[in-house]
Amino acid sequence: MDKDKLYDLTKRNQESKQFYASSSWAKARELALIRDKYLCQSCLKKKRFRKAEVVHHIKELRDHPELGLELSNLISWCNKCHTSHHKSSDTKSKNIKTKIEVVTTKTNIERF
Question: Which of 7, 29, 70, 95 has its CA at a distance of 20 to 30 angstroms from the CA of residue 77?
Fold first, then answer.
């Protein structure tokens, strides 16, 4: 199965699927790749040259949909850097503990 299709099945919600299928996203993505000369910007910082295959939202689309098409919020990355980033951010979000309070009650038998 294609990696993008697998990602769509497991991670993306319906709104995101529509966004990434839009012509507006295709244009913004292409502009980001052209701006970044089709090079992974993360690798470039480490003085490595690797082809960019993914355009990443710096501020996550689900948290900031208003920035979804803003060129200043897009960065070109290779698959390796993109996967690495999301694996580490997924791990961080899993480490956030939430406290759930469970309330137990007895059955209320009403008599008439």
Answer: 95
CB 52 within 8 A of CB 40: yes
Alpha-carbon distance values, 22 to 47, 76, 97, 105 (Å): 34, 19, 36, 50
CA distances from 92 to 54, 57, 66, 95, 111 (A): 22, 18, 24, 5, 52
**CA-to-CA distance for 105 and 95, rounded, in angstroms?**
31
CA dihedral sign, ordered 78, 84, 85, 90: positive
When pLDDT is averaged across residues 13-35 and rounded to a whole number, the result is 93
**Residue in the block written with tokens 């690798």:** 43
Q: Is the pLDDT of residue 106 over 50?
A: yes
The model carries a pTM of: 0.68
Find the mean pLDDT for residues 55-79: 95
* 37 Rama class: left (phi>0) / alpha (psi -120 to 50) / beta: left
